[in-house]
Amino acid sequence: MNKVCVFFPALALLGGVVLAGIPSDSVKTKAPANWFNLDPTYDDVRGVGTERAYRELLKNVPSKTVIVGIIDSGIDINHEDLKGKIWTNPKEIPGNGIDDDKNGYIDDVNGWDFIGGKDGKDIDQEQLELTRLYVKYKKRFEGVDSTKLAGLTSGDKEDYARFEAIKEEFEGKAQESKMTYGVLQQMYESYVEADKLVKETLKTDKITAEDLLKIDMGTAEPKIKRARQVLDRGFKMGYDEKELKETLEHYQEESEFNLNPDFTPRAIVGDNPEENTNRFYGNGEVTGPDARHGTHVAGIIGANRSNTLGVKGVAENVKIMVIRAVPNGDERDKDVANAIRYAVDNGAKVVNMSFGKAYSPQKEWVDEAVRYAQSKGVLLIHAAGNEANNTDETPAYPTKTFVKDGKQADNWISVGALSWKKEPDAVATFSNYGKENVDLFAPGVDLYSTVPGSKYEELSGTSMASPVVTGVAALLLSHFPKLTAAQVKKILLESSVKMPELKVNKPGAPGEQVAFGDLSVTGGVVNAYNAVKMAQGMNKQ
Ligand SMILES: [Ca+2]
Ligand SMILES: [Ca+2]
Ligand SMILES: [Ca+2]
Ligand SMILES: [Ca+2]
What we know:
The radius of gyration is 24 Å and the shape is globular. Helices cover 37% and strands 11% of the residues. The chain folds into two domains: 46-127 and 273-538, Rossmann fold (3-Layer(aba) Sandwich), CATH 3.40.50; 129-258, no CATH class. By secondary structure, it is of the alpha/beta class. It has helices at 10-20, 50-57, 129-141, 146-149, 154-202, 209-212, 222-237, 241-258, 292-302, 333-345, 363-375, 462-479, 485-494, 528-538, and strands spanning 2-3, 66-72, 111-113, 318-324, 350-353, 355-356, 379-383, 412-418, 440-443, 447-451, 455-459, 497-498, 503-505, 513-515, 524-525. The strands form five sheets. It has a seven-stranded parallel sheet with strand order 3-4-2-5-7-8-9, with helices on both faces. The chain has a two-stranded antiparallel sheet with strand order 1-6. The longest helix is centred in the N-terminal third of the chain and has 49 residues, at 154-202. The structure holds calcium ion (4 copies). Residues 92, 99, 101, 103, 105, 108 line the site of one calcium ion. One calcium ion binds next to loops.
């Protein structure tokens, strides 16, 4: 699934129109400004109480700077609202081609990029892990058929069975993607055509929903009537040509890159991704070709709270370490593992991980890095994923459970996405959940935050919920630096606002309701005010 953010609202349209009519709750209304920082008791929206914590508990209280690692697609380090918030490696002299601080990485001034090459080139698109597995197995079992199967060892037979399952899934997915692309393309074309036709008819450059009423459904030509219907539907769904086009591009990229068995961008890095013996690869330029996702995440955590620009991040006193490891496509276990180690070794106290995927063939590499972070007291915050799945049954990797011994990391928090809407729509329709594997929920629908070029945008996803929790963890650590990672986790979970009985629509099951308490370990929503209160009680200043 890669970066777990929902970029494609037109998908809802596709589901709505093709499958089930227009769902009423997909009609866009506006989220309250700064909602994720508001307070559930005073502001009538389920934010995390950041403003209240600062106002009532932390006014003029000194704090320490906390380094926050963000493993993501890259970050626009020059964004106006992130000025002064980006970490700089104190002993590294920029651009001299020398590893001045001798940490193994040359000119790592703001962090590191694990999906780039020495020559400065960067990976943008990647295959899905499913595609990589398909290619790997296919190579191994090329030419094996039922006559040769008998001669295989039992281990090989097991792998062959796995290959067949992977093959079926891969081929199904590739076909589905192609089909969706076809349907969307048709929809896009009819939308563009309708738009053009209505503009010509009404002699205007811009159409509003009211303008459409000027078209008389009784007397207008059939093709004009059809055009009005197409646009009417578009207005009701709140989408526009740009959004539809982006969605179309997404599916094009899927077949061209993510689901293309012949696409091999790793040569840019020049390593052997099947081996993890050398973790010093990549380049020092951390923005990369597509920093939209990472920049949005960064703003939620640490955008300047005291200027008048853009947005207010959750944590006031942070420096963001930029670690690039997530392409458009599935991130590699190797890069995730080395990104975690980089963050730990260079001073991050909490790391945000807004990414995930369905397969993790080298999970033990990630597990070792998670154990390493655990041994150094570094907290890892992970987005639960956007497939509307129960992750107790269908994991979204990485997970807190170690392959080797089944033990669980105690420095790991998995976060589901909450909406600003009232029950029964309180949980994001796309959010993964799990009584054992999702720890708590946080705001993740329509969050307004920073995007490249000193711009701002509303995005949704557990990708947005995870950094809210990362922000609260950083806020806590900056005021209570003696807290250990396990203590921060304990405080965040215990102080979360519990709503065990609240009835909400179950993600992925339209019409089915479930108790909010059954969707996560705590049945709670993270809360900064409660967390600070609890930490004050523990006397850990
Ligand atoms: Ca260095
Ligand atoms: Ca240097
Ligand atoms: Ca780069
Ligand atoms: Ca700001």
